[in-house]
Amino acid sequence: SGSLAEHAAAHGKYFGDAVDNNEITDTAYRPHIAAEFSQLTPGNAMKWDSTEPNPGQFTYSRGDEIVALAQQNGQTVRGHTLVWHNQTPGWVQNLDATALRAALQNHIQNVVTHYRGDLYAWDVVNEPLNEDGTFRNSFWYQKLGPSYIADAFRAARAADPDVKLYINDYNTDGLGAKSDGMYRLVQDLLTQGVPIDGVGFQAHLAIQYGFPNQMRQNLQRFAALGLDVAVTELDVRMQLPADSTKLATQATYYRNVTNACLAVARCVGITTWGYTDKYSWVPSTFPGEGAALLVDENFQRKPAYTAVHDALAGG
Ligand code: G3I
Q1: Radius of gyration, alpha carbons of the chain
Q2: Is 127 one of the annotated active-site residues of the chain?
Q3: Is the peptide bond before 31 cis (omega within 30 degrees of 0)?
Q4: Is the CB of 274 under 6 A from ligand 1?
Q5: Contacts of 172 by beta carbon, 8 Å cutoff, 6+ apart
Q6: Vertex 273, ends 270 and 274: CA angle to 5°?
Q7: Is the CB of 87 under 6 A from ligand 1?
Q8: Which parts of the chain fold into alpha helices (H)?
Q9: Does the Cβ of 281 fall within 6 Å of ligand 1?
Q10: Which residue among 112, 213, 278, 295 is the one 20 to 30 A from 302 at the CA level?
């Protein structure tokens, strides 16, 4: 007994869920969101295409709904995300360098100011790296070079002195070329005096690709730079159909991620990218894969739920 959030809190950590607006109206799901989690991340509602679909036209209704639910439930919110290469309107992508730099400043100033006081953290820059640890050749990088990253953090800090500012990426969970690239980038930002508080490790895992190499050691080396670390988008997909062997492997992955965070004092919490397999980004992105979350489509707990629960409970 005891919720995931309660057991995480005993370690001084949160346990969070990513939710979308269409999900939080599901009356079967809402009680689980309230009962199991101490933190929410909007899965889509705070992305640029939601918050500034047209130049200078800011729309916060979807993000505000999720903040309101979190406040009602006594949960913190991680804002996701200010600067990304996906879900950013065409009008932004078509700007020249000078106008793009101005749009970045204006977007961050407006959105961060709107949510000032409501959020625990922002994912300021999302997914800036290639698999080999070099900079992703996004429209941001092509037009502005790496300076867009430092600029984004400075603009966010100028708009809110208190919210935690994170950089966030996937496939950086274990030691390897991509996490080495993140480590160099973060060291460089710190050397430049850029205001950064934390590094987010998405942890979109798949049982067929193996568990990340030495995740605890990887989180620890970032923490040793004086930063918070967080597991921000955890899920563990598999090739369908699920069977008891795959579900047991999945449970082991979830347990290992949980234990990695518990072993690192500056790992502030874990967010799963959804709770129920009813709502998961996986099947539409990776056809034939899924069953990635803690409970099934009918909210029945899977072995993964028990593994996370027992790891948090010290079992
Ligand atoms: O809003 C439109 C709707 O108007 C339209 O009718 C419908 C038709 O497909 O699409 C809707 O947009 C979808 C959007 O989610 C909102 O539901 C997009 O097609 C769909 O591609 C989009 O997927 C999101 C994905 O990011 C896109 O980049 C997922 O929900 C979201 O979970 C996922 O989250 C990302 C994190 O932000 C960053 N890390 C990876 C993670 C998983 O991809």
Answers
A1: 19
A2: no
A3: no
A4: no
A5: 129, 178, 179, 182, 199, 201, 202, 218
A6: 115
A7: yes
A8: 4-9, 21-24, 30-36, 48-51, 61-73, 90-93, 97-114, 139-144, 147-159, 177-191, 215-223, 244-262, 282-285, 303-312
A9: yes
A10: 213
Q: Distance between CA 42 and CA 81 in Å, rounded?
A: 9
**Cβ-contact 266, 276 below 8 angstroms:** no
- Give CA–CA dist 63/310, Å, rounded: 33
Q: pLDDT value at position 5? A: 98
Q: Which of 36, 233, 289, 297 is catalytic?
A: 233
List Cα–Cα distances, 156 to 82, 151, 192, 230, in angstroms: 9, 9, 16, 19
Distance 276 CA to ligand 1 centre (A): 16
Instruction: Give CA angle at 246 (242, 247), nearest 5°.
Output: 80
Length of the chain: 315
Structure tokens at 112: 């961060």
Please choose from 20, 44, 66, 125 the residue to mutate so as to test ligand 1's pocket, defined by most ligand atoms within 8 A of CB: 44
Q: Could you list the mean pLDDT of each consecutive 10-residue stretch along the chain, which spans 315 residues?
A: 97 99 98 98 98 98 98 98 98 98 98 99 99 98 98 98 99 98 98 99 98 98 98 99 98 98 98 98 98 98 98 88
Tell me the pTM: 0.98
Q: How far is the CA of 142 from the centre of ligand 1 (A)?
A: 24
Q: What gap in Å lies between CA 234 and CA 257, rounded to an integer?
A: 9
- Which residues does 215 contact at the CB level (< 8 Å), separation at least 6? 173, 174, 201, 256, 257, 260
Q: How far is residue 263's CA from residue 102's CA, in Å, rounded to a whole number?
A: 42
- The rounded Cα 196 to chain-centroid distance in angstroms is 16
ipTM exceeding 0.95, yes/no: no
Cis peptide before 81 (omega within 30 of 0): yes
Task: State the Cα–Cα distance between residues 279 and 293, nearest whole angstrom.
Answer: 9
Helix axis angle for 215-223 and 244-262, nearest 10°, is 30
Place of tokens 């070099």: 134
